[in-house]
């Protein structure tokens, strides 16, 4: 590329950047004046261009936060929202480590099976079902979780009480 062409491109880029900056400053000044006149922030925000970041605060319980993260961390989610959710996760993990571990295991690493898939994969033999439950017990599952598995896979829940009688 010739020096003259490079200089023209650099000047054009600087002009465009200047236009963006001026427009953003003008829009932000309008946003501030609307707030000063008592207009709610969420309404005033409509004059801000998409190129401006906004700051927001929200309250959410852990159940709904995990639901939000499950949807937004899905590989099919838009890249930008996935990055945002993963950044949020870095704050959630240390705040609730045991809940995060369960969420990650059950939701992020878990999978959904169709009825046909469950029917095909479910062992029909009660002895084989016992072996499945014993294997999960070895993984740390206890009665409540094992009974949940029984409901998901249509096993007889009494197998759990038979193998590990309630105290």
Question: How would you portray this structure in words?
Answer:
- By secondary structure, this protein is mostly helical.
- It folds into 3 domains: 3-47, no CATH class; 62-108, no CATH class; 115-163, no CATH class.
- 69% of the residues lie in helices and 0% in strands.
- It has helices at 3-36, 41-44, 62-72, 79-95, 97-108, 115-121, 126-138, 143-153, 158-163.
- Helix 4 (79-95) runs antiparallel to helix 5.
Walk me through the topology.
Layout: H1 3-36, H2 41-44, H3 62-72, H4 79-95, H5 97-108, H6 115-121, H7 126-138, H8 143-153, H9 158-163
Helix pairs in contact: 4-5
Short description, anyone?
This protein is mainly α and about 170 residues long. Helices cover about 70% and strands about 0% of the residues. It folds into three domains: about 45 residues, no CATH class; about 45 residues, no CATH class; about 50 residues, no CATH class.
Annotation, overall tally of beta strands: 0
> What best-fitting shape do the alpha-carbon axes yield?
elongated
Count of helices?
9
Distance between the termini: 82 Å
* Low-pLDDT segments, ≥5 res: none
Query: Roughly what percent helix?
Result: 55-70%
Strand portion: under 5%
Oligomer: single chain
Question: What is the domain tally?
Answer: 3
Rg estimate, integer Å = 27 Å
SSE arrangement, N to C: HHHHHHHHH
């Amino acid at each position: 590329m010739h020096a003259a062409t490079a200089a023209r491109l650099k000047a054009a880029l600087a002009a465009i950047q200047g236009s963006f900056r001026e427009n953003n400053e003008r829009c932000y000044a309008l946003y501030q004046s609307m707030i000063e006149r008592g207009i709610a922030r969420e309404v005033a925000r409509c004059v801000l261009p998409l190129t401006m970041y906004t700051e927001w605060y929200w309250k959410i319980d852990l159940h709904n936060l995990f639901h939000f993260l499950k949807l937004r961390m899905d590989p099919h989610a838009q890249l930008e929202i996935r990055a945002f959710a993963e950044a949020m996760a870095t704050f959630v993990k240390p705040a609730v480590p045991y809940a995060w571990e369960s969420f990650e295991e059950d939701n992020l690493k878990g999978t959904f099976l169709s009825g046909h898939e469950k029917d095909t994969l479910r062992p029909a033999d009660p002895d084989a079902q016992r072996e499945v439950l014993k294997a999960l017990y070895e993984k740390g599952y206890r009665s409540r979780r094992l009974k949940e598995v029984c409901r998901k896979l249509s096993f007889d829940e009494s197998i759990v009480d038979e193998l590990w009688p309630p105290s």
